[in-house]
Inverse folding.
């Protein structure tokens, strides 16, 4: 729901949104911001067994007509606290909205929803870009002692971002979307693809589609073992 009429955004936000407070807002790098939120309602939902470990999506209203989806990470379910990592690329309603948040502010979040379970007894492979860091952290947290590997395909200017949030995944850098997808596939080939793992593909549409096609057609990974989520598409508003 990237853009909707203002009256519809009002209706959705106030009828279905959960109040969440801003605990902290930190600029980790010029292009990466981490905001920590907390909600008593989410803590109560966890106590009631309605939410728990896994990949979730939350949606915020970032402008009069703008809605944006994000993957929460670093959960403390007992207190209802979680982080959202905002990749600050260019100007846009999501970036500007996150920049304005201050500790003590209250906003409304839709969700968490669209849960994807993370199987603790199975290897996981994360493939993404600069917008996938929160997703990678959530997979690692949910996987427990299971092995998590993968690759972040980004621009040269973003190579340090995974380490800035504590990720030790492989990083490849390219200037175009096509080059980054090619480098990600080459990294997968070099690491001996695990056909039985669960794959988590997020980021740009080209990266998700090209790596997904490689895994299914060239490696034989079943579609049921691949979780896909497109975060952005060149020339289109945020998703």
């Amino acid at each position: 729901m990237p853009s909707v009429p203002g009256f519809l955004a009002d209706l959705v936000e106030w009828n279905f949104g959960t109040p969440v407070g801003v605990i902290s807002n930190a600029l980790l790098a010029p292009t990466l911001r981490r905001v920590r939120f907390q909600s008593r309602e989410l803590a109560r939902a966890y106590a009631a067994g309605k939410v728990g470990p896994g990949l979730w999506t939350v949606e915020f209203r970032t402008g009069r007509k703008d809605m944006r989806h994000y993957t929460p990470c670093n959960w403390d379910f007992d207190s209802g606290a979680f982080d959202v990592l905002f990749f600050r690329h260019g100007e846009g309603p999501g970036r500007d909205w996150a920049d304005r948040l201050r500790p003590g502010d209250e906003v409304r979040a839709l969700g968490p929803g669209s849960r994807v379970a993370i199987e603790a007894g199975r290897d996981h492979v994360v493939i993404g870009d600069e917008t996938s860091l929160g997703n990678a952290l959530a997979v690692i947290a949910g996987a427990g002692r299971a092995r998590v590997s993968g690759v972040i395909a980004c621009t040269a200017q973003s190579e340090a971002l995974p380490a800035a949030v504590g990720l030790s995944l492989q990083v490849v850098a390219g200037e175009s979307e096509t080059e980054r997808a090619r480098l990600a596939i080459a990294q997968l080939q070099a690491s001996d693809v695990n056909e039985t793992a669960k794959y988590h593909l997020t980021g740009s549409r080209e990266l998700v589609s090209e790596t997904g096609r490689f895994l299914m057609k060239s490696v034989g990974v079943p579609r049921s073992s691949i979780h896909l989520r497109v975060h952005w598409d060149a020339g289109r508003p945020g998703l």
Notes: The chain has seven helices and twelve strands. The helical segments are 6-16, 40-47, 93-100, 133-143, 161-164, 177-190, 205-219.
